[in-house]
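Re: beginner question about structure tokens

> Can someone show what the tokenized structure looks like for a real chain? I only ever see the sequence side.

Sure, here's an example I had lying around. Input first:
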Amino acid sequence: MVERAGRVEGKVAIVTGAGSTPGPGIGTGKGSAVVLAREGASVLLVDLHPDRAEATRTMIEDEGGKAEVFGADVTSAADCEAMVAAAVEAFGTVDILVNNVGLASLGTVVDATEEAWDRALNINLRSVFLSSKYAVPVMAAKGAGSIVNISSISAVRGDGTIAYSAAKGGVLAMTADMAYSHGRQGIRVNAIAPGHITTPMVASVSGGGAQADFGNRMRNEAGLLGTPGTGWDVGWAAAFLASDEARWITGVTLPVDSGVLSVTPLLMAQYLRAVR
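And the corresponding structure tokens:
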């Protein structure tokens, strides 16, 4: 049997939000970083909480992978510039950027505060702008690179998180424009729109006991597959889009959502009645 080379063997990746909120399961950033390392990449693990990224590093190194930790606030231009410089210093270049940082909060256009609006756009959208701003020139200088932006199905479906939804919608718009602007420099830019996955961050705000169990069942049943989604599912998708196997894919949004976006609520209700 011939052993398969990793999808991103020998490449260098930056993953923002590469730590994981304490709790059961795995976050999308940690999942993406670990999968990229398993597929052969050296990974710079960027997080506002370096101790969380250190846990990711330990997991990667225990499996024989390569990773370094960089503490940064990716809403800061100086931190993002330093982040890219750190990747180049540690590993020689930047081939892959996964813009994963995100934070949601409830609120309609009426009751959301200006502070919540500004915070959501800073964390979810400004971070993508600034991280890409400094990574793109490194990629362009060698004529190759892949950027994967983590958006959300909230960008295209209402869920009472007006600021988060607007920011994640902006990520989709940025993805299309960046793909247009940098394609001839050899840089591919794609987005992932996770659905109702369960991560430690979701668990931390969903309560415990019966309430959490009910929320998990609802998330599972909302999708056509009826099975739970996790940060690993986003990580596997990110590794594919970052790899040369996706060499002719750019400017797209890949839903990782168990089919939620492919069916209307009415038909989903009918479907659930039919299969029970």
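Each token stands for a local structural state, so reading them left to right follows the chain. The chain is about 45% helix and 15% strand.
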